[in-house]
Amino acid sequence: MPMFSKGIVLSQHKEPAFSKPVLRFVHPQTDSLKLDLKQIAVQTEQDAIIELARLARIVDERDGKLLYRKLRKSQGKAKIIIADAVDDEPYVSSRIGPLLQMGEEVADGLELCCTVAGCQEKRIMVYKMITDLETRIPHSIQKIKVMRVRGGYPAYQQKRLSHLGDMPRLVVGVGALIHLARAVYQQKQQSTVFLTVAGNCVACPMNLEVSLGMTVMQVLERCGLTQQPTRVVCGGSMTGVSILDTENTLITHTTRAILAVRENQRDAHYTCIGCGRCEQVCPSGLNPMYIHRLVQTNYYAGLPLFDPQLCIGCGTCSYICPSKLEVATSVATAKAYALGKVPGEEEEDTPEAGASSPSSTRPEPNAPLEESPPTGEAPSVPEEEADAQDDDLLKDLPNAE
Amino acid sequence: MQLKQYPAPHIRMSQTTRGVMADAIAALSFLYAMAFYYHGPRPLVLGLFSVSVCLLCDILCSVISKKRYNLRDFSAVVTGMILPLMMPASVEYHIVAVAGIFAIVVAKAPFGGVGHNVFNPAAAGFSFAAICFGDALFTYPSADLKLPLWKAAEFTLATSPAFILRLGGTPGYDVMSMLLGKYPGPMGATNILVLIACLIYLVSRGTVRWSMPVSFFATVAVLAFAFPRSAAGGLASVGFELATGLLLFGGIFLLGDPVTTPKRELSKVAFGITSGVMVMLFRHFGNMEEGITFALLLMNAAVWGFDMVGERIARWMRRKKLGTLEGEKIPKKA
Fold first, then answer.
1. Which chain A residue has the Cα nearest residue B310?
2. A273 to B75: CB separation less than 8 angstroms, yes or no
3. How far apart, in whole angstroms, are the C-alpha atoms of residue B10 and residue A91?
């Protein structure tokens, strides 16, 4: 399709966090939580694995869904299991880092998923366009083939699975696979999450394994701050949420990175010169420039022509804008309006909404540390609703043409 | 810790609007260097004068409309640099001033300033000057003639190839002098090789998309081949039409203006083709030697239409790509 973009190639800045060993920074009480195996009363091996995943309350960090639901959905259906280590956002290496250093556990987790799905094929998916690495990504990890996703950011929009065709697949994040292996072989609950700490204020950027429910400040202090940051970001550099209260913001299952940045923001009040770059890079083929203009002038009636509801929230339009306008914010407003929400009204994060989109993972502020058990973040969605949500699970990723 | 809340994304591309404008300025300064080589210091003085007139008008307009003037916004400088390059090197200063004032005060500021103007300011300014002063803009000094700073209009002797074409004749210049710009013409638009280098530079920097100049020049070439104005035949006509007058310069710097051109690739191609047709119509039936600025002004008024049609096609294509042309998957507004 010539009119849809191939994405933009970002300089990745993964070093020095990527090449350092993944350290553990865990709460001793939650780290020693073990599963109660007496609860398990199932017949088959597949059901046992699913039950263990349920008891361990493993959440897939790539989409915030409970792993046991994904496994149950793909039981006997998926023909290929893919471990997702596509860290396409700059600074973030919280999947590819653990993958290289805990390859055995990832392989074990993949094997367990294969057992559940009843298939043999498995792959590891990494992002190709990382040029600044000091460590080489091998072609196979624990004899599992590593697929490389080419093309620019956002990598999930690239035609990378074309040779797999319409094959039903199960895509699981590397962190969830590691936790699955630990749950089955060590009877451990998921009490930690892998995340990258980086940014120009962080003294020692690294990948950490952090207990769930720790505060952002604790993690930042663990890595050290060289200067006072002006912006602390929970999540990736392209889609993360900038937070204000580091003392009361907690680490959740879908926190992929914490970035502490100081920048000399100059107030450059440029106006849109209509260069059309946002339109050229938009992976959904939208025209963010006109959407931005309509939102700025409050002319919401003109929006249906521009399909703002197809926005995937990747943020490339704002990134590329030479006038430094907040295009992505306008498109998000337009999307909310097109989906039936009143503009200007504060969105309330329902558990589903918070869990289904990794970009909008906003931890609850003002929740004291003691009152938040490490497993309390799991979305409490009724089973039927969740099943309805997961209907498109096997077609999770856009199929290539 | 003093934190501020910012919307995502938290990293930005380093290039700014200023960089986009600076690219255009860099390309234009090469043309000034060539004009300096052929005509001495007068083109540089003209350029400085024009830039200061445009900047002054721009600042004045933003003061009147009570806006804060952004000194990093170089768009007025670009307009000011383009204007004299479209005129002969011997042009009088007051003509440049009138063109610059019209460009900023009439064509740009009333529409809301940079980014909001419907018509290309440089094209509007040149067109206005062409209507007001006519012959003074289309009588050129011969190439290689060093001009004095004052009273240079007395040196205007030679007729340009564009004028010869207009009369139906065949310009007697060989290929090499045409490429190097050794023939009478607008002071920035004769150096074909430098212009092509500028185009390559701007395209490689991403400031100008390749689709529009290419479709524009291709259309002009096809029309020139099909309907030659001179007796020299098709291929020679293609060369003359592309090389004479403001065609190459306008195709790069006037069509390359992002504000007054469509946004989508498809619309850009359609716009380039239609502009090519319009320009050739002006050349065949217009009463002036150069009609590209008039053609572009007419086309500028139609940009919104091009954009909307392109947007409709894009919507059809993306819905077809998603398999949701019927709209069952695309959530409707409640």
1. A287
2. yes
3. 11
Residue A100 belongs to domain with CATH number: 3.40.50
CA distance A351 to chain B (A): 21
Residue A203 belongs to domain spanning: 193-264
pLDDT per residue as tens digits for the range B139-193 = 888 877 788 887 777 777 777 888 888 877 777 777 788 888 888 888 888 889 9
| Chain A residues with CB-CB distance to B325 below 8 A | none
pLDDT band (50, 70, 90) for residue B28: very high
Per-domain boundaries in chain B: 17-321
| Contact criterion met (CB < 8 Å) for A274 and B307 | no
Last residue of a domain, one of A147, A168, A190: A190
Q: Do A181 and A199 share a domain, yes or no?
A: no
- Tell me the residue type at B292: I
How many beta carbons lie within 10 A of that of residue A237, not counting itself? 25
Residue range B17-321 forms a domain whose CATH class is mainly alpha
Number of domains in chain A: 3
**How far is residue A13 from each of residues A133, A153, A155, B332, measured CA to CA in Å?**
9, 14, 16, 40
User: CA dist A215 to A220, A365, A387, Å?
Assistant: 9, 10, 32
Residues A36, A78, single domain; the answer is: yes
**Which residue in B has a C-alpha nearest to residue A319's C-alpha?**
B12
Q: Are residues A108 and A147 in the same domain?
A: yes
Say if residues A192 and A175 touch (Cβ distance below 8 Å).
no
Amino acid occupying residue B203: V
B312 contacts in A (CB within 8 Å)? 305
| pTM of the predicted protein model | 0.83
User: What's the rounded Cα separation, in Å, for the pair A13 and B220?
Assistant: 46
Interface test with B, best of A267, A270, A392 (most B CBs within 10 A): A270
Same domain, A30 and A119: yes
